[in-house]
Amino acid sequence: MKKIVLLLLACLGLLTAASAQIDTTRGRYYQPVFQNVTVSSNVTYGSAPNFAGTTQTLLMDIYQPTGDTVSRRPVIIFAHQGGFLVGSRTDPYMVAVCTRFARLGYVTASIEYRLGFFPFDTVNVARASIRGMQDLRAAVRFFRRDAATTRTYRVNPRYIVVGGSSAGAFAALQVGYLDKDSEVPAYVGLATLGGIEGSSGNPGYSSAALAVLNLSGATESVNYLEPGNAPLCSVHGTADAVVPYAQGRVGGGLPPKYVVGSGRLNPRATAVGIPNTLRTLRGAGHIPFESTSAAGLAYADTTFRTIRDFLRPLLRQPGTVLSAARATGKVGTQAYPVPATTEIRLAVPRGVAFRPQQAQLLDLTGRVVRRFRWQQPDQLLLRENLPAGTYIVRAEQLADVRVVFE
After folding, report:
1. CA 172 to CA 17: how far, in whole Å?
2. pLDDT tens track for 54-74
3. What is the pTM assigned to this prediction?
4. Tens digit of pLDDT for each residue in 288-306?
5. Strand, coil or helix: what is 306?
6. CA–CA distance, 262 with 279 (Å, rounded to integer)
7. Domain over 334-405 is classified CATH 3.40.50.2000
8. Where along the chain do its domains lie?
9. What number does CATH give the domain 21-315?
10. How far is CA 98 from CA 78, 92, 157, 276, 387, in A?
């Protein structure tokens, strides 16, 4: 009898873990199981002041597999290239990549974000990149809000991926790894721009990503990547003269701005334990996958397969967006805002049975820095005297969740 009970408990545990995952059977998310794609154009996902101070309505195009009946689907949000000066959500590569992944079963979106900066200098291009990041975060929150309310697009809020090409990749990398105000150079004036989260729309929902797709992008520092961060997939040409593969400066005629590219970001990810894939395009220049030449189309196929093969195993695991959940059968939780200054709200999903329980706050070395009682499904965690940094909240019945105080 005891063996039977243990077997039943084990099965229940497997079912609980499986219920949090995405069904990848029958070739879904790997083969083009849908022939046609339905596009919802000009969907408003927010608004915010542009560099000139004029309020800009933020639009996206959403791609869905035609005839799909799955009720909770993963999302990939793409941001276009263009140096934060030009580009559009309808650029040919954005249309092509969104269509290809929607045919696999994903919901995909191509966003427009605030462009332009003046004067044309290092300070203002950095500010433009922050605005792009804030808008991409608002797009993530848009889908989370939809999942919690109207469910128009039938998405799973735990499986939202951000990605981009060139400038769009800068924004995606910042969504994934820029989570503390202290990481932003003081000359940017982050507070005047609205902080890391910004105010582009859909407040109250997490902007954390399941994974980051970096296509010919870079960041200010490798130190943005820390233990526990989202997985990273990079595709980059070694002869990129616009955004360096390893490290160098960007901006053309602007005063030099030094950045680190995929050739350093992915080794850093490996060093701190972040799952990652780097597809090195030997001898290729900047965004070669966007060219319509025969070589460009071959690069586009390589990029598509790299992203596809990187993402599909992540779909077979409990979502890492709202919590650091593993296959433990524990309930995932949400923490927001991330980062926070004085307090963070911990929230258990609606409809989940909750009982008060003991919880711990650990630093990244695993040291317990605070013990507290998790009394209710929606509870505030006060910073009090905690130093700035990244922490993990761990409770008896709930999955680990990452929080950041700045």
Report:
1. 29
2. 999 999 999 999 999 999 999
3. 0.77
4. 999 999 999 999 999 999 9
5. helix
6. 9
7. no
8. 21-315, 334-405
9. 3.40.50.1820
10. 8, 10, 19, 22, 41
